Each structure stands twice: as C-alpha cells, then as structure tokens.
Amino acid sequence: MTNAEKALELSKELCGKLETVSKYKIKNREDLALAYTPGVAEPCKVIHANPEEAYNHTIKANTIAVVSDGSAVLGLGNIGPYAAMPVMEGKSILFKEFGDVNAFPICLDTQNTDEIIETVCRIAPAFGGINLEDISAPRCFEIEAKLKERLDIPVFHDDQHGTAIVVLAGVINALKVTGKTKENCKVVVNGAGSAGVAITKLLLLYGFANITMCDKFGILATDSEGLNWMQKEMVKVTNLSNEHGKLADALKGADVFVGVSAPNLVTEDMVKSMNKDAIIFAMANPTPE
Quick one: 166 and 239 in the same domain? Predict the structure, then answer.
C-alpha cells in the first residue's frame, strides 16, 4: 500500500483527524455547576470588566484559527472549502503536536476578499491568532495586510512566511556546505504566487541581489504581460538585467533554484546547465519539480 493509499484509508477510518477534548471532567452536580451555570457566570463578569482577562479564563490564550477559502490548496489548485478541510486539519495537528498550540480548521465558503476579511474579524474574539492558509495570490496579500490592520491578535499567512523562513534557513546552510556566497549567487525562484513572492522578498532582505522570478510562462520581466499588481512590484527588484525566456534559460549559470510551482518542470539537462555545486530546493506540493 502506498503512502497516498494509507493517507486516504486513515482519513476515512478516523473520519477527520481532530476532536474536542474536555479539560474538566463532569462527575457530579457540583462539577456541572462549576463548569457551566451558575458558576460560569463569574469568569463572564471578570472578562466583561476587562476583555484582556479572556486570555486568563478561556481557550483564547492558546488557540488559533487555521483559515482557508480552498482557492490554492497545495498543488491541487482551487478545490474549494470542503476539499481543503483535510489540509487544514493536518495543519492544525502540526500546531498541536509540535507546538502544543490548539488549532481549529475554518474553511470559508467564499472567495470574496472583503467577505473573508469581514468573516475573520467577526470570529477573531474566540482566537489568540489567525493562521491564513492556501488562499490564492494576489488576494492573500491584501487579506493578510487588512487583517493585520484591523485585528489586535497575530495574523500569519503560512504559505508566505512559513515557507520563506524555512527556505532561507535551508539556503543559508547550503551556502556553508558549497562555499558559495549570497553576494555572488544567481538565484532562480520558479513560482510567482504567495510562496514565491515571500521567498524572494526574504532572500532580497537577507542580501541576495541577483534573483530572477519565473512563472508558468517563463521569466518575469518589466514588460511581461498579464502580471498582477504584486508581480509588477516584484519585477522592479528582480531580474535587474531584464532578461527574457523560459525557465530553462533562467537556470543557465544559476547557483540556486527554488521551486514552488508545478511538478516535473526541471529536466536533467536544465540542472546540468546550472553552476557547479548548484543548490536545488524542488518544493512543488505534493509532487516536486
């Protein structure tokens, strides 16, 4: 049985990977009176007097919402909120198992930017943070920015920042192994969505100056057609020599390849065209480049 078959069998057997577990067991009338009415009124009064007390008396202190509209799930694309649920459940498990943070999947049946922002703002009182997940670009940039403006809790778009942080850490170590320097590296980032943009921004911030971005049509340049507003911003600080061509052209003489696009795009010949000791992060999900 393959891992894919095992994963399908597991999800069906468990009927979802999450459950709600009570911290407090109700064994008698007194337990019930403490957990619910009339005792529950006391923390309500305290929180009403000072909303910050919600962090001391409720799950808000250690619970986040994993929010998606299902518009850009893994490499599967726009599969909608129902089909996005297994991924959001899985991400919630990672928060709990690796960070002991409670997380709950919230899959929204809308892909309207304003509706998503408004909905998240409405449910925010129950959570200590918002983790945005698998929302397509460029809407994801606006959604994250506006939520950060309006909410007083942390907002984090995992596809952008989580991916970028891990990539930078890996690249830093790869430079040490190969003896390359960031100042002299030619970097190619394939994929100009949320992950590709965030990775490129962080690599630029770290000091990589020579970065070329590509999408499914090839190298992104200032005169490329069909760029969204974020891509137009990115071509101002990447591909400074304004080169044109396909991914194969971009990879010639490259030192670093970061792939966050689609499967089976990079051939053996393309790898051979890169510089010696090339650094390759093929990360298209679930099937790499």
Answer: yes
State the Cα–Cα distance between residues 164 and 167, nearest whole angstrom: 5
User: Would you say residue 261 has pLDDT above 80?
Assistant: yes
The torsion of the CA quartet 65, 71, 72, 78, rounded to 10 degrees, works out to 140
H-helix or E-strand spanning residue 264: none
- Tell me which of 110, 137, 153 is where a domain ends: 153
Residue linked to tokens 């911030």: 205
**Does this model's pTM top 0.70?**
yes
Domain-located, residue 287 = no
Quick one: 79 and 135 in the same domain?
Answer: yes
pLDDT greater than 90 at residue 8: no
R_g over Cα of the chain: 23
- Find the Cα–Cα–Cα–Cα dihedral 207, 213, 219, 225, rounded to 10°: -120
Domain boundary among 124, 153, 182: 153
Q: What are φ and ψ of residue 212, in 5° steps?
A: -120, 130
The DSSP secondary-structure symbol of 204 reads H
Cβ burial, residue 168 (10 Å; 0-12/13-18/19+): middle
> Do 139 and 258 sit in the same domain of this protein?
no
Q: Which residues are catalytic?
A: 36, 91
Beta bridge partners of 102: 63
Question: How many other C-beta atoms can be found within 10 angstroms of the C-beta atom of residue 13?
Answer: 7
Among residues 225, 228, 223, 224, which one has the least CA distance to residue 196? 228
Mean pLDDT of 268-272: 96
Residue 53's Cα: distance from chain center in Å? 30
